[in-house]
Structures are given as structure tokens and as C-alpha cells.
């Protein structure tokens, strides 16, 4: 009976998802960005940090479909240092998704663990301790908290207890700490709901331990709402990682980063070099749009009745 219930939940979820056109469109956009990130070395037309000399009488940044002094074609133009914007956007997408997946993965592990423990120990001092800590973190705007954490850890590589952490991993950790409370809240609410179900009561009757109940009985039914939260958080992670890099607190030059590209392009935005800022801006916007469409579609698939009420 338990397997039938789990299978029914997932089958209903998948059936509703396929009917949602925006969700499918969001999934395709996300798939496109994943392909761009995976095949960036193949699709790029140049090394993202290679600098090309401008033709005689011209200066960088050069417009799209122009050539360098040695004949290299800039599909989407060049930046002020003579680097290929198309190639930098591809590798910037790779860095963006690597950061987002890593940060969401770490926040998922932390948040789900805390939420599961709090939900199973409802109304106990453990629940109160965990949720008050979560409330404190949630009281800060995400970007402000991330900036504060980066300020505490510093830029570049960081050594903690003799362990050396790269700048990218440190940014992942900062974003994960910032967003893990959201996973904790969602997980706790779902666990509280599932703990009142008959199959949990039956597991308790036969002497199943708390860990077994949460891991083997409850967790599978928390997958759909957790997937929704993860997808929506991917969109926010893309935005906050780009914001940190734009402010000079994230990935550092000359590493390809869409946020760094926007920072470098700001002085040229009103000087006619529109492509310099538009290309990374479009990449970031499309990625956020894709993850939001996907997340909204997943949410509507999890609770179609709520979706119908909102649509009225």
C-alpha cells in the first residue's frame, strides 16, 4: 500500500507537469543553458581570457560580427580588453550554473536535514532551537546576508582550520547558508503534514525508528515540494551570484563571469557599445526566467487545486 501511494503521488505530479506549457518551456530553457555550459569548450570560438588586437584605426569594444586584427570573428562583439564576448558568456554560463547547482545542493542538504529534525520533533526544544535560528537568518535580506558573510570570510582563497577553500567554493557556501533556511521551512511543514498520515502511524505501531520513518516513509512524499523550492532557488541563486560578482564580491577577474562582464560593461552602456552589457544581461535574464517558469510549473503540478484557484 505504501508503494502504491508513493507511485500515485509521483505519477499525478508528472501528469500535471506535462500539461503545463510554461513549465515545459522553462524546462527547455534550463536544458539549453545546461547544454551551453557542458559544451562551452566546444562551442566557444576563443579562449575566454585571450586578448585580441583591434584592427588599425579601431578600438575595443568592437561590435558583433566584427573581426580582430588577425581575423578572429567576434560573433557577439569584444569587450574593452579585446576578449571574445560570446566565449566569455558561454564560460560565464558554466560558472553560473556550477555555482547555482553547488549552492542549492549544499543548502538542500543543510536545510532538509534541519527541517526534518525540527518537523519530527515538533514542539520540542529541538524544534524551537532550529526554527528560531532559521527565523534569525530569514530576517536578513538574502543579498545583505551574503555580502556580510563574504565580508567576514574575505575575497579569494580562504584557509579555515588548515583547509584551503577556493573562492568559488566559498561563494557556494555563502549562498548555501543564505538560502538553507528556506529549505528548512518547507521541509518542516511537509514533514508535519506527512506525520499525521495513517502510513506513518502504522510504521510507529510496528516499532519503526524515527530515522526510518523520516527517511523511508516520509521523505519520498516531500520530493515534489522540495523540487519546487530547489528550482525557484536556482533562479534566486543565479541572481545573487551575479549580483555578488557585479559588486566585486563574487568571482574575480579574469575568470569568466556574467556578473563581472556586467560590471566591466557599465561604463560603456551609454557610449554606443550596447552589446557589451546586453549579452550577459540577456543570459542572466533568460536563466532566471527559465528556472522561474520551471519552478512555477512544478509548484502548480504539486498542488493543481491551488493553481486553479489562483488562475480564477
Layout of helices and strands, plus pairs?
Elements: H1 2-19, H2 21-38, H3 40-43, E1 66-67, E2 73-74, H4 85-120, H5 125-138, H6 142-153, E3 158-160, E4 163-165, H7 167-195, H8 198-205, H9 210-246, H10 258-265, H11 274-302, H12 304-311
Antiparallel strand pairs: 1-2, 3-4
How does this structure look, described?
The protein is mainly alpha-helical and 312 residues long. The protein has one domain (2-100, 139-171, 222-311). Helices cover 71% and strands 3% of the residues. The chain has a two-stranded antiparallel sheet with strand order 1-2. Strands 3-4 form a two-stranded antiparallel ribbon. Helix 4 (85-120) runs antiparallel to helix 9, helix 9 (210-246) runs antiparallel to helix 11 (274-302) and helix 11 crosses helix 12 (304-311). The chain is elongated and about 85 Å long. It starts with a helix and ends with a helix. Mean pLDDT is 84; it is low at 1-5 and 306-312.
How many domain units? 1
Structural class: mainly alpha
From the N-terminal CA to the C-terminal CA, the straight-line distance is 36 Å
In the predicted model, the low-confidence regions spanning at least 5 consecutive residues are 1-5, 306-312
**Biggest β-sheet strands, sense, barrel:** 2 strands, antiparallel
Concise description?
With 312 residues, the chain is mainly α. It has helices at residues 2-19, 21-38, 40-43, 85-120, 125-138, 142-153, 167-195, 198-205, 210-246, 258-265, 274-302, 304-311; strands spanning 66-67, 73-74, 158-160, 163-165. The chain is 71% helix and 3% strand.
Amino acid at each position: 500500500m505504501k508503494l502504491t501511494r508513493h507511485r500515485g503521488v509521483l505519477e499525478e505530479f508528472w501528469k500535471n507537469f506535462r500539461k503545463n506549457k510554461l513549465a515545459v518551456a522553462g524546462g527547455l530553457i534550463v536544458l539549453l543553458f545546461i547544454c551551453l555550459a557542458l559544451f562551452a569548450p566546444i562551442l566557444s570560438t576563443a579562449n575566454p581570457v585571450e586578448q585580441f588586437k583591434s584592427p588599425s584605426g579601431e578600438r575595443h569594444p568592437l561590435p558583433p560580427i566584427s573581426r580582430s586584427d588577425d581575423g578572429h570573428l567576434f560573433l557577439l562583439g569584444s569587450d574593452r580588453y579585446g576578449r571574445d564576448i560570446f566565449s566569455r558568456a558561454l564560460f560565464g554560463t558554466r560558472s553560473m550554473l556550477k555555482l547555482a547547482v553547488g549552492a542549492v545542493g549544499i543548502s538542500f542538504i543543510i536545510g532538509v536535514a534541519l527541517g526534518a529534525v525540527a518537523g519530527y520533533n515538533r514542539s520540542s526544544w529541538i524544534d524551537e532551537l532550529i526554527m528560531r535560528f532559521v527565523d534569525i537568518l530569514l530576517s536578513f535580506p538574502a543579498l545583505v546576508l551574503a555580502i556580510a558573510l563574504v565580508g567576514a570570510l574575505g575575497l579569494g582563497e580562504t584557509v579555515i582550520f588548515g583547509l584551503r577553500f577556493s573562492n568559488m567554493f566559498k561563494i557556494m557556501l555563502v549562498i548555501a547558508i543564505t538560502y538553507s533556511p528556506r529549505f528548512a521551512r518547507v521541509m518542516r511543514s511537509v514533514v508535519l503534514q506527512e506525520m499525521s498520515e495513517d502510513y506513518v502511524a502504522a510504521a510507529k505501531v510496528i516499532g519503526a525508528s524515527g530515522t526510518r520513518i523520516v527517511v523511508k516513509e516520509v521523505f519520498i512524499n516531500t520530493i515534489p515540494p522540495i523540487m519546487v523550492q530547489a528550482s525557484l532557488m536556482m533562479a534566486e541563486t543565479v541572481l545573487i551570484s551575479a549580483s555578488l560578482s557585479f559588486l566585486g564580491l563574487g568571482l574575480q577577474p579574469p575568470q569568466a563571469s556574467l556578473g563581472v562582464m556586467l560590471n566591466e560593461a557599465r561604463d560603456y552602456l551609454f557610449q554606443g557599445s550596447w552589446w557589451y552589457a546586453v549579452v550577459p544581461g540577456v543570459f542572466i535574464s533568460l536563466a532566471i526566467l527559465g528556472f522561474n517558469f520551471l519552478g512555477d510549473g512544478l509548484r502548480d503540478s504539486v498542488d493543481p487545486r491551488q493553481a486553479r484557484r489562483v488562475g480564477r
